[in-house]
Design a protein that fits this description.
Blueprint lengths: L11 E2 L1 E4 L13 E4 L5 E4 L2 E6 L4 E10 L3 E6 L18 H7 L9 E6 L4 E4 L4 H8 L4 H9 L9 H16 L6
Antiparallel strand pairs: 1-6, 2-3, 4-5, 5-6, 6-7, 7-8, 8-9
Helix pairs in contact: 2-3
Length: 179
Amino acid sequence: MLAYFPVDCIGFQETIGYFRSNPEVRPFPKMQYIKVDKLRSATIRGHYHENMRESGRADVLALRALEGPVQLFVMSGTAADNVPLLTMVPVLSLVAGAAVLGGSAIERNLWFVRRAPGPLMPVSRSAFRTQMSGFTADCPALSGPIAAGAEGYRYGDMVRIVQRYNNFITSKAQPETAK
């Protein structure tokens, strides 16, 4: 289905407002709504969003912030906020958008990770150290600082943590060159 979305959000919760036709062309269309749990995935302004049903959150359509051996999904804010905490500026690339996610607004983000081909896992703020140090256990350079709660290895640093972990997995998978 082709739809026009009025904002670029970092994920959606419960419902998504959209227009069936261009909202700037007369006659001006009425806003339509669809429940997030009815969607499997959506590509909105070139950014992939996926329903987090697999992790037990069918009411969340999260933005895929990072691709790679481990995918990172994010939903910013909650339905109670009525507006997204962060918006994607069209001129920003997803990498730049992910860098914006490194700011202080992340405290209200919901994070989800998936190690291909494994299941989707929600990352809880309260259990972050235990979950992510276990998830990255094969990389002591990450799992140790995460378990210790070191600066730069906390809940708000998910983008950098997953980027570093993906780099670790990728470098481990490449054959070593002869010296």
